[in-house]
Amino acid sequence: MNASPQIARTIAEVRGLIERLRAERAGGESGNEVGFVPTMGYLHEGHASLLRRARRENGITALSIFVNPIQFGPNEDLERYPRSEEADLELAAREGVDVVFLPSAQEMYPAQRRTTVAVTGVTERLCGASRPGHFDGVATVVSKLFNIVKPDKAYFGAKDAQQVAVLQKMVSDLNMDVRIVPCPIVREADGLALSSRNVYLSEEQRREALVLSRSLREASARIESEAEVTPEQIVAGVTGSIQASPLAQIDYVELLTFPELQPLDPKRDLSDLRDSGGSVILALAVKFGSTRLIDNAILNLKEAPLHV
Ligand code: AMP
Questions:
Q1: Residues tagged active-site
Q2: What is the pLDDT of residues 43-96, one digit of tens each?
Q3: Residue minimizing CA distance to atom 5 of ligand 1
Q4: Is the pLDDT of residue 138 over 50?
Q5: Cβ neighbourhood burial of 86 (10 Å; 0-12, 13-18, 19+)
Q6: Which atom of ligand 1 is nearest to the CA of 160?
Q7: Domain assignment of residue 238, given as a range
Q8: What is the signed CA dihedral for 201, 204, 207, 210, rounded to 10 degrees?
Q9: Same domain as 115, residue 83
Q10: Domain assignment present for 1
Q11: Residue of the nearest CA to atom 17 in ligand 1?
């Protein structure tokens, strides 16, 4: 049985706890590096996989749970975003987390904020286009969390692949002394990518949502096996499969280069990228009722698909 994690609700507390643990564990067998997993809570196996990896690779594991208001748009689900502190702390204890940082919005944003971290280029498409301001909110809160926790490594899921690309660019452009570690998407046995938002789905929506992973799998197989297939044909194939589900409403389906997230010539096959061993991302956002789900597959065109 793992010891319960230490809980900090203020910035001063979490800094103190991390400093103490670093000093205690200096020179110890598993080291005193800090592996950090930032989340919005309502934790599931996807989050647990990041925590496990962080624990394996670091002497100290830190988790933050904060539903960051500035990454939600005015008509998004901030108010109804699911929360469950007790269950989250149980999962954290099971996974051997050392420190949980649980700040209030007031603690993170006490006064009028005059600083925003904005990453350009990689934020132009996908969720950057359909959720204006979202990635400014993400980059700003993650910068603050990095300054507070001072992790050596930070673990993020490929479920939010654009987020990974944005944060890698931010860390590199701003010379932040932390390594971003991308981790594979965790799925239910039937293929649905785990998400805190899956609890919003009705039984019927949940069943139909399987079209997302299924169409990604089919399209990935096509990219692998049909040398002549074009981005336009891939996107049309996925769009058609999703539109066949009466409950699904497409926000976007796009095939882009990865990690640059730049568009491909829709009518040109992928042979240049195949030759250079480049990667592409097939990404989609689809609404079922008021619940917006995202999923993606990243394919290295020289190797097997990575995340499906
Ligand atoms: P969230 O709490 O949704 O903000 O997610 C916190 C972290 O967990 C992010 O890095 C997500 O990409 C990651 N995550 C969420 N769902 C999954 C999943 N199904 N598989 C892997 N990582 C995930």
A1: 47
A2: 999 999 999 999 999 999 999 999 999 999 999 999 999 999 999 999 999 999
A3: 39
A4: yes
A5: exposed
A6: 12
A7: 196-307
A8: -60
A9: yes
A10: no
A11: 46
